[in-house]
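Justification of computing resources. Each target in the renewal requires a structure prediction run like the one illustrated here; the chain below, 217 residues long, is used simply to show the kind of job we budget for.
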Amino acid sequence: MKVPERTIDYKTHGIVIRSFPRAKLVSDRFHVQQLATDAVQQLRIEHRWQAIDQENLEIELAKELHKEYVPDLLENGDTPKQLLARSRYLLFKDETAWTPAQRQRAEILFRIYPDLEKAYRMSRNLSHIFSSTKEKELGYTRLAQWYDQVEKAGIKAFSSLRRTIQNHYITILNYFDNRSTNASAESFNAKIKALRSQFRGVKNVDFFMYRLMKLFA
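Resulting structure tokens:
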């Protein structure tokens, strides 16, 4: 039996182990991938703040020289600040799903910020490991190679993800046993919240549990 890790409160971990002694905890792949995506976006935001600061300095300099400020435009018509802001959504996607405009923007973005391209490639590689690997031993090898790649890259934004994989690699690897996720648990939780919202809260817990059993059992 597989129990998605995200669905278990650590305070009740002992209860689960006692009730289901043969169960294995599984770190949900989508939450691991989300950490990688967040790291890419964090790096993009850092570059955007730097671009904003640079633009402010140039505006102040133009004022001191009594000149009109004219921003530098890239070949697609974006300023560096706009380029970084408008690249947000393309960094969530695989490059095969980019539109022609997004592809052009990505080429400019990665040329100016090569570390952002490196972070994006590592994020997509992690996603491909989860989507294409079906054997646990192979998954272990690929994740170890990916981990080494992240260490060598030295991108600070990936430090939290690196520590997460280091601390939870056993439950992450358990995903490859049956490719288990907590999608069904998340879906059921959404149904419970929707039912509870219809009654504007729950006063009689026993009756509420009875309704859940009748509706969803």
